[in-house]
Structures are given as C-alpha cells and as structure tokens.
Records
---
Amino acid sequence: MNKQHDKMMTDLQRLLGTQDFQSEAELRKFMESIAGQQIPSFPKEALTYQEQAQDLVFEAYELPPAKAKRNIEKALQLDSNCIEAYEFLASIEDSVEIASALYEKGIAIGRQVFGGEYLEKHKGAFWGFHETRPFMRCMQHYSDCLYIMGKVKECVAILEEMMELNPNDNQGARDQLLLYLIQLDEREKFEKYAKMFEDDSMAFALFNRALFAFKTEGDTANANKQLQNALKRNKFVAAKLLSKKPITNLPDHYGFGDENEADYYTHFAQHIWKNTNGASAWLMKHSAKS
C-alpha cells in the first residue's frame, strides 16, 4: 500500500472539510481548481488529536523501527482509538498470533466507530469512504492471520463480512474467499459469490472456477472447458501448482497472464489443489495438451 498516497488522500479530505459546498457543482469546480496541485498539509495546531495521531502513524512508515514505535506510542496517547496505529503495529509484528490480536483490536474499534447509523447509511460502499479504509485493511490482514493459524471458517466469515460492507470488492477479497469456500466444500456460497463476479477473467478467478468444477463434477466436459480457459489465460500457473516448491514471497504487482500473476495465485492455492483428490493429476493431463 502506498502510504504517501494515503497521506495525500487524508490531506484532501481535511481540505474538503474546511469548505462549505452548497452543491455538487461547487464541489466539482473546487476539485477542478486544485487539480494537478500539491495538496497542502495542515499545521499541527490546526489538527484534532485524532488527526495528529494519524499523521504520526504516516510518519512512522518512513522511520526506523525504534523511532516508528515511539511515534505510535504518541499516536495512541493522543487517540487510543487510532485504527491506523494498530494496523501499523500488526504490520511489523513477527508473531502471527500477536499480529492477529492487533488487527482484531483495530476491527473492534472500527465496528464501534462505524456501526449504528454510519453502518446503515454506508453499508455496501465502505471502501468508498476514506475513513473506513484502515478498518477494511485490518479486516483483510486479520483474515490472512486466521487462515495461517488454521482458522479457515473464521477467516471466511471475515471475508464474507467484507463483501457485505463493500460488494464491489476493491480489495480483491473474493479471490481468497472463493478459494477457501472450495476448500470448505461450501458449494452454494461459492456459486453465490462467483455469480457476483462472473466477468472476472484474472487467473485467480479462472483457476478457482476450474478447481470448483472438478471438485463438484469430476473430469467432465464443463470442468475441462473451465480449465482450458484458465490455462489459456495464464500459461505459467499449471507448472507452479504442480511444482513441489511453494511460492513463499508474494510479488509487489502482477498483470494479466504474467508470471507474477501465477506466483500470486500459486502462493494461496497450491496446497488446496494438492489436497483436492485427483486435481493435480487432472491438471497435469490437461496442461500437457495445451
């Protein structure tokens, strides 16, 4: 995640908060007037304690560990409910159990702050509001921790909650959700979420559909078609799934059909393919033909 961009968006939100727009037209005119300009940072004395705490967290990402932790301590003294502070502490934690607890703390704060009327008004568009993003990021990272700890059902429950809060799924939670639903044999839920994103043509979606078809139908014409579609989309995935070598490091970015995309999918999916009876042999047979 680009923290400089996150800081810029925070400053933009603060700047907009100082304006008194009477219409959407006024808002658009103001946005056009500042297009291409650097968004000004507000002086410390103009910020609330909560905003000062946020800025200390932004600074922490640019500091050595010891200084960064001092920043976070100051941030929590200013605002004990600073979700960004718990997100930061979790992100630098080596212990998955401790990281999980810190993300869970951020989520608990978020549910309190963004519950009630806020939830009723904004449910379904949570990623669209800048203030909810640290909460949503904590949820995603928390789900990862739960999965690593073997708590697959709990992980899926968090991912489903994320889908309810933001069905557009800007964070890509559906990728792992659908994969883990295959693992749990949750056929109806898989079909529900797969239908929501039936136009998704990334490798993650296509190989998930192929695996689901094979697991629920066997070596059928439909399953074979799904697999061929996936193999055509990314030629690198099959060999990586069949390899004995796990992908331990996630790429920073990936594109349609490239090797990074294959690494990304394999990192999450390799063990599920290998633990699905007959799936590896089926994949090997058809990848040899393509």
---
Amino acid sequence: MTQTMDEFEKLLNEQFSYTFNVADIIQGVVVKRDKNGFLVDIGAKSEAYLPDKEITANGDKPSDDVLKIGDLKDFYVLKGEDEDDEGIITLSLKRISCAKAWQDLATAKLSQEPIMAKVVQVVKGGVIVEINELRGFIPASQLRIGTPLDSLIGTEIETRVLEADAKRNKLILSQRQAIAEQREQLVDDVIASLSVDQVVKGEIIRIAEFGAFIDINGVDGLLPISEISWARIKHPSDVLTLGETIEVKILKIDYDLKRISLSLKRMGDNPWEEIEGKFEEGQIVKGTVNKVAAFGVFVNIFPGVEALLPTSEMKDENQNPFNVFKVGDEISVMIKKFTPQEHRIALSMKEV
C-alpha cells in the first residue's frame, strides 16, 4: 500500500512539474468568481488568478456575456509562480490578443509573408501603422518612392515585417519590400503567360533616346528605336507619344533576366520583302534624302526602305555632301547594287 501511495505521489508531482512563465499562452477553465476577479483551473497545483482589470480593455467589471463559469479560454501568463510570494499565477485575458498578434507577426517575419497595416500617423522619419491593436513603424526609406505620406493616413498598405520584438515592443515594417516581392511574382506570372511572336497591347510609360518602355500587364518591355519603324527616325518621340496605347509584337523573352523585347515595325509588312521584284540593278529611281553624313547620303526610295548614296558615287565625289544635299531633297539615282535580303541597296548618281 505504501508503494502504491509513493507511485501516486510521484505521478502527481510529474503532472504539476510544468513551470508557467510570463508571456506563455495557456488554456484554462473558469471555475469560480472571486471578489476582484476569477479563479481559473490551468492544470497547476492551485488555481490561477484572473483580475477583473485584466479581462477587458477598459478595465470594467465583466458581465456574464464576457466571461462565465465553465468557459474554456486561452490566457496570457502575466505573473509566474516564482514571481509571487504565495506562488499564485496571475493571468490576463485582454492581453491574449496582443500576444497572439506578436506571435503572428513573428511567424510572418519568418515566412516572409506580406501583412496588411493601417497607417494612423505621420511622424518624423516615417509613419506609424496599426496591426491588430499593435503599433509599428515604417521608415520613410521603406515606403514606396513618391508616395505623399499625408495621403496614406487611414489607408491599409501591404507590408513586410522586418523586426518583431514583443519584449521591447518594437515592430518595424517595410512597404517597399512587400511591393518588390509582389512585383517579382507579377513579373513571373506575366512572363509565363507570354510567347515570342505574340501580339500584345501596352501603354508607353517612358521614352528615351534608345527606345521606349511599354507597360505589358504591369511588366515593362523594351521597344528599341531600331524596332519602332522600318524608316530611319531621329528620336522615338517622332513616332511615339507618352501615355499612348499601342500594339506590339514580342521579339524575345529572357526568362533568366526577366526582360521582354518588343517590336512595332514588325506589326506591318516587311518593306524589304515587298521591294523584291519591284527594283533591279541599273534602274533609275527617284528618292528623298533622309539623312546626310560625311560618307554619303541616305535616300528613301520606298516606304521604309533606305538606300545609301556614298560620296564616291556622287557627281563630284570631292564635294562635301552637306554642301550639296539637305534632308527632304528629291533626287534621281541609279540602283548600282540591289541585295534586299541583306537590307542593303547601293546608289549612284554618276551614271544617271
């Protein structure tokens, strides 16, 4: 009998060997109403104590709608056994949502999952946001560039958790990283849906000397100046207008670098293919000067087709082309060499 009692006591001690620490989240059953709170059975040697002020956020005495005898709930350990002279564990109900919010934020940081935050205040160096009753800070450097801070107040933005320290009550977030990840996923999805030679619509969002950038479903594609027109153009803005929506053909997709190359001129017929059979060597044709260079003159002899009249084939090869021709001049020339497959036509004025 003595051995049986010893075993029972050993099992009983093992059952209550768990130490309840501050910030633990535990389950308990409300068993009794006390003068200034409730007693809660949490599986310890004695009931834990839940003060009235730790039940609701405003500290009012709870009604039966808030807490009832027999309720099974999660509680936040406010004070552990070792911190109280009588070994009583003190609980909090109102802090459970706060503790869970910190847990969710810590999980979001590890998983790198985006999280929504409401902007509530603009402060020096950034903005204050609110997430599940917790407040965090987004430095200005981690906000989307060009976003007016005052216009963000009251709005919810997607963010990524940079730091979540419950003990120091420190929460730092980034909007830029969340947008970057979102955009990267968007780029992957859009590129995966495209194919070479596909015709797509896009908005011209930027024009530069070397070409234009076209927004294709949220992804920027490059339209080089050489692919804008079959005819020679000085600048992309001669043909394109910022904000204009155009149809372009996909020339190349670089899946590793996530780049899209586009063409506008290939939306129409290739004029170099059209001129085959229409011109021949020795034929006299009329053309318009498109460009004057030190080595010769570029002449448009067919829409989109440019031929070269070198200085050696001018009437007087010693003359400076700039002194003889100007853009827009109409001249008669002879086709000396005709190789449309190579996109080359050589002209001569000596034999005209």
---
Amino acid sequence: MAPAVFLMGIGPIARWSSSSVPELWMRLKWAFAVGAASALVLPFVLGRWSPLVAFGLFLASWLFAATAVSLIGRVRNSHHASLAAALRANSPSYYGMLLAHLGVGIFIVGVTLVKGYEIERDVRLDVGESASVGGYEFKFLGVKPGPGPNYRALSGTVEVRKDERLIETLKPEKRIYNASGQPMTIAAIDLGFLGDRYVSLGEPVGENPDNIAGAWAVRIYLKPFIDWIWTGAFLMALGGFIAVSDRRYRLAVKRKAVALSAPASAAVAAD
C-alpha cells in the first residue's frame, strides 16, 4: 500500500499530462520535509524509535502535508477576492477527496502506533494489589458474583490510576450463560483519544482456585491510538459519500440517459 499512499499525496496536485518531476518537487518539497521530520522525531517523542513506526508516520505526515499543499494552492490560485469565496468555489467531489485522504492518514497513524506501541501483560493480582503497566497503575479490588438477565456473572473491579490520580474504574466480567453453560469473558474498556485500556479476568489462581475472593489472573492491554483506526475508516467513507453527491455527476448521468434515449426516439418517429 505504501506506493499507493505516496501517490495519493501527488495525485491532487499533478496534471498528469503536463506536470514534470521538478515542478512537482518544487510544490511538494515542504510536504516531503514534514513527513521526513515526523518520521525522525515523533517515534522518539512516543518513547521508542523503530524503522516501521518511522515509515508509517512518514506516510501519514506526508499525506496530511500534501493535502494541505493542495488546498492552499487552490485557494491561492483562485480569482475570488475572499477566502470564503475561494473555498466555496471548489466542488464537493474535491472536498470529499481531501477528507478521504485525511481519513487514510489517520487510519495509518492508528495502525502504526497500535502495532508499534501496544502492551499486553498477564499478571497475578490479589485483592488490593496493583500492577504498573505503561505508566498506569491497575489496582485489583476483587470479584463479586451477580445475576444477569440470562447468565451468572463474576464481576471484577479494577481502578486505573496515573500519577496517583484515579482515571477510571473498570468492571470486567466472566459470564456463564444459563442456556448453554458456556463461559464468556467480557473485557472492560477505558476509552481515550490517545488510546484505550482494556482489562479482562482470567481464572482464580492459588492453592484454592474455587475461592473467588483470592488472587486472579488479570490480562491488561494498552492500545494507543486504536480509535484512530475507526475514525480514519469513517472519514474515508464520509469523503466517498460527499464526493459522489457532487451535482456534476448527477448531471452527467442525466446527459448520458438523454443521449441514449435520443436515437430510440428518432427511430420511433421515423416509423
């Protein structure tokens, strides 16, 4: 996908029949510089540099910067006196394309950072014990049984703290459904703009594993920027809908329908 993503930054600017490489370079050199600087710096800011993370961030930053270059170029070359008029002069299909490209960039950021910095740990926690994972403290407060509408549940309580400040109290569950008797683990999720935290219950551990008041195996996941994956996909779809809503496409379909029906009408008239 990398070559296709790179070309997505060039496509809105290039006039394929007449654009030369030096001309494209002059217009896109700042976008390339932004991508390269992001690839070099951002992984260190996030905690660890790696080639694949740097490459993913380069592609995303390149796409963001190239999209901005395209929009700025259109506004500057517009003959309208005001910025608002210059922006209105562009078609919905153009803005749909820009939005979809931004969605691709956001999607790439999400995938890159989740795969590069996700953390998964299995820990044994007794009641009142804490585990430190990725700068967060997860304190296990025990498990309590409780009935559900069609299942029996064991509901755990885990406090999530950062810098001794309570962020969220999570309630992971293990459920046994009455009809099938099958167990199911329900993870608790703390959603966040910069990443999600997941906690799920394993099994009771220790000398007496049937004692739910004792220690439990707890699985903790940190998924940085995972919601950006779904946000990017949503923006891609929204950009596609905006693009196809362009009035020019509807008029083209009508003209084609009229052109196809004209010979048939002429034949009927001749008969």
---
Amino acid sequence: MIAYKSINQQNATLEARESYYRTVGRPVEASSVYLQTCNRVELYYGEGGVPDEVARHLFRVTAGLESALVGERAVQGQVKEAYRAARDQYRLSAQMHKLFEYALLTGKRVRRETEISRGAVSHSLAAIEIIESEGVDLSRAKIAIIGVNKLTADILKFLKNKGAEMVFLANRSREKAEKLASEVGVGVVSIEEKAALLSEADILISATSAPHIVVRKEDIGDNHRLVAIDLAFPRDIDPEIGKIEGVKLYNIRDIEERVRKNIEVREHEVARAEAIIEEEIIEMQETLERRQRWEKSE
C-alpha cells in the first residue's frame, strides 16, 4: 500500500521541521515522492493500493487546504515539481503516478470551481489590490513609497512584477533606501524632497515607524488626483489629506478589513473544495480498479 509521512506547521514547530529536514535529507527509497515546502516535509512511498486517507491528505495539500494560508497557489507548483523530480529519479508505480496526477487535477479544479484562492490576504497584496481597483495604470503611474521595511520591500516587488516603471523610494535613512532600491531597481529621493515628489505622484504608499505624521496636507497640494495608502500605526498620512478633491485615502483599518473579508471568502469555500476532493478520490479509485481488472484479465 502507498503511505505517507508528514511533518508540517500543524504538527510541529518551525525548529522541529528544520531539524527533521536536516536529519532526513533527500530520501533514497524507491518509488517515493519527496515534497518540501516552507511549511512541510512529506514523503509518499510504497506500492500497491492508495488508501483514501492518503489521497485525501495529498489532495488537500495540493488544493491549499493544509497551507498556513488557506488557498495559496504556490503549493500546486511545488507538488508538481516534487512529482516531476521523483518521476525522473525513480520508477514510480502506476498507482503512485495516478495518485499525483489526480492530486494535480484536483488542485486545479478546486481553484477553478471555487473562490478558495480569491483575494489578497496580506497587507502588501491588499494594498496592490486596492490600487488596481482604483483603475490606476501602473505602467504610467508615478509612485512614491515612504519607509524601508519588509512590507515596503514586498510592495515594491509586487509593483515591479506588475509593470510599474516610475517608482521612487524615500526614507529617513538614505543609505537604507538606496540598498533596497538597488535590489528592486527603483529610484531614491531624500525625505526632505518628498513634497516635490508627492506633488506629481499618482500613488503614495507610506509605512514608516515614525511616531508622528510624516505626510502633511501641504505636501500634497490641492486639485491633485492621488491614491494614498497609509500602512503605518500610528498613521503616517494626515487624515485631512483624504478631504482633498481627487484624493482617495486608505489607512491600515481599510487594508485589514479587506484582508479579513478575503479570508472569510476563502473559509466559506472550504466545504466546496472538500466536496470536490471527495469526488476526485472516488474517480481515482474507480480508475485504479478498472486498471486492476484489466491487468487480471490479461
């Protein structure tokens, strides 16, 4: 029978998973598939029939139901790569092939037929989602980012991946700004020059650790179309800026509400995803039974 071993974020700490990974390394068992992600290390091994519980676990993993972030998409590719690597290295059994083929089909079907992967569920992605909802053409927009930290680093990467060209980073420490800017390929302006930048900006994102307002009304000017996103606590952007005609101001509460709603949508879709998984388990077992009957008749 095909079986699996799993150590993951639900049954072990990060330290325990790291220790297990260093201990187990890459397995050399024949007819096995080794899956490693940031949250799990798993080994599928053996020959013969595929128990429903083994298929159910792998299908749930591939569909993103076992991920720390329910519905995340990256695991689909990670399962595909693990299967490809095992297929190249070992002579897998027909049952193991079918198990992983159906797992990948199930993951695609879950994401196609449900909204399990819909919507941003991180502050950085939610900010990008809001910008896109405002209809801003990122390839033409002038974008100002204030603050250097992991949040702004993630946002800069997302913006560049979406085709943003005119992106400028400002920070109290110019040295830190230049280091991050060189990594992602954006421009740098000094924090003292931010008013000149903001007077022409189409998008402003601020996320500093300052204990006071960083962007004031006089930095923006009147009659200026601007999407401003304040990701700081306490707030970086003067709330009065939101009253300027043409300015849309979002703060951390707006971002977190968007994230919360997206998470709720995903959670509501879990039951639909689970129903699809059960259908695919039945389909896989029928396929394996037909193959077994055919082999016996030969």
